[in-house]
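call fold(seq) -> tokens
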Amino acid sequence: MLSGLTSRILLTLSLATPLCTTADITTGEPEELRDLHYGDALFQLYQQNYFPAIVRLLAARKQGLMQAYADEPELLLGGLYLAYGMPNTAEALFNRILQNSKSPEVLNRAWLQLGKSRHRRGNMKAAKSALNQIDENLKPEANDEKHHLSGLIGLLQKNESDALADLNKISQQSEWTLYGRYNQAIAYLRNDQPEKVLALLQEIGSGIDENDDNEEKSIRDRANLALGYLFLELQQPANAQQALQRVRLNSPASSQALLGLGWASLQLGEQERALPPWQLLAERNASDPAVLEAKLAIPYVLSQLAAEQQSLQGYRDAITTYDASLTQLDQLLSQVRDDEFPDNLLVDNDTGIDSPKRSLLSYLLSGNAFQERLQDYRDLGHMENNLQQWREKISLYRTMLSNQLVAYNQKLPRVDEHLKGENLKQVVDRKEQLKRLYEQVATTEEPPFALANRQEKAWIERINKIKRIIKQHDTGGRLAPQKEMARLMEGILTWRIATEHPARVWSLKKQMIELEQNIETAHQKESELAKARAEAEGRFDAFSSRIEQLEKTLPGLHRQVKALRQDETELLREMALERLEQRRSLINNYLVQARFGVANLLDISSARAGGEK
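ret:
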């Protein structure tokens, strides 16, 4: 039963890469934003809303915004293209940055992003060439990322010596350190250097820190799992148990760890101690291959312990489990072949799929290659919906533009009337009047009544009328008292006007200044209005042309995206069928072994009964 450990180790020691390494995000202390549009794009990016972030950056770029950040938005846009699964577009953008930028820091970051883009596309030689263009001016964290990526490329090219050289350059305090050490273990394993593999895996697996995040905990679990199976391969079961017991029970690696613990006990000759971890594992969902193997291993050990009845029941339970798994597998295969695939498997409906079948579906969706294709399918679905919405909206924009044009034509006569400048001419005339008055009163030593207010002018007119009446009717000085009273009243009024004359002159000057400012503002607004009037029809024509172009372009784009999504559906179907057929082959193999175990036990029982007779 204990076989294939070397292949199991190699599967366990798959390359370790962070979950999010595509978009060019710099973490650390928050920086002051110099542009609201750039901040909006960053907000969408940190929410992992890549499509809206790309839209905002492209819109701001088209409007000539974000000038304060130079090439930063372009680098961010390229990283977003990578995150959104568009390496070709990202590479073209990075190449353009390399041609135009003169900043060493920007050039280094562009080469790094270009290397990541080429690595994602599978062009390892070109990716390595891009990384080699980076000089020593790269920031420490980005430099560690470069060495890690270069090491991954070396491993993928089967060049373990170069991979080790790059991975050894990662600093000890970097967030890339754990990934680098883990991948070094892979390189040493391929070079058949088990001592160094053991040392590295022991260092990673035993270095558990309470501050580890989920990714770091996962890597340590994988390291302990690989270490345990490597010890099993080296016939060191006690050490294997220590390593496997460090794997968390809620870890994705825990099922394989429980399986390995049982095999370690068998190597130690402790068959009874092999049962508890396997029995715990057997209670888990049968979609896990380790559970299927444990179902078969338990009755095997029981038969070795001469517990034949329990062993027979264990084999029969295993057969029941395998038959049920095959039934669920057939149902899932039917759904995969259905025209509604893969949407029929992605509907979040807890009552639509029972738990075992849902777990089998999780197994189907768990592979990295399948997940990438599935993400592409979802992205295309999002784009298809987006294009469909735009096809529905474009007619609304056409209606809105028509309404705006009608409103514009209704207001146009008033605008043209205003542009004739009649109102402004009156204001200018008023300013000239004030100017002449100011020149008259500002240079006069004897303040005239020109600056008298309305009430004062009424009093002046009344006094002058009284003086005329007195002059007409005064005979023999009879009206001398009235004449003196009129003189006193005129004197008081003249004294009041003379006293307030400087303040009134200043008020007149202030009115002139305000009028001049208002006239200047009015001239500016008239110029803007005239410019808007001249450009209005052109803007309406431009909007109409854009709408007409979109009406012609959107249907073709919509059909293209639908066709691409259909292609992705077929690729997903092929991958799903291949994985499910592999699972069917595995279950059938276990089923044959379980039935053979039942037959063997029945033969033993029959032989014993025949001997007793």
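Residues 328 and 354 are 10 Å apart (CA to CA).
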